[in-house]
Amino acid sequence: MKVIENRATKDEEKMEIQEMQLKEAKHIAEEADRKYEEVARKLVILEGDIDDL
């Protein structure tokens, strides 16, 4: 029984670590999306400025 409890505890700890890693990965992906959108918007503005020249 003790072996099963130890295994369950290790599995719970591993799951908590993976949940934290997933949360961090989502945060990084969201930040990358925001940066991409900002750069894409600036590119459109600059292309419009070039066309005006």
Question: TL;DR?
Answer:
This protein is mainly alpha-helical and 53 residues long.
Walk me through the structure:
The chain has one helix at residues 2-52. It is rod-shaped, with a radius of gyration of 23 Å. It is mostly helical and 53 residues long. The mean pLDDT is 96. The termini are far apart.
Which helices and strands occur, and which strands form pairs?
Elements: H1 2-52
Keywords: Actin-binding, Coiled coil, Muscle protein
GO molecular function, one term: actin binding
Protein name: Tropomyosin alpha-3 chain-like
| Discrete helix count | 1
Largest β-sheet summary: none
Give the overall average pLDDT. 96
**Assembly annotation:** single chain
Low-pLDDT parts are none
Structural class: mainly alpha
First-residue to last-residue Cα separation: 78 Å
Rg (C-alpha, Å): 23 Å
Residues in β-strands, percent: under 5%
Order of helices and strands: H
Estimated helix fraction: over 70%
Q: Indicate the overall shape.
A: rod-shaped
Number of strands: 0
Keywords: Actin-binding, Coiled coil, Muscle protein
Protein name: Tropomyosin alpha-3 chain-like
Family: Belongs to the tropomyosin family.
Pfam families: Tropomyosin
Features:
mainly alpha, 1 helix, 53 residues
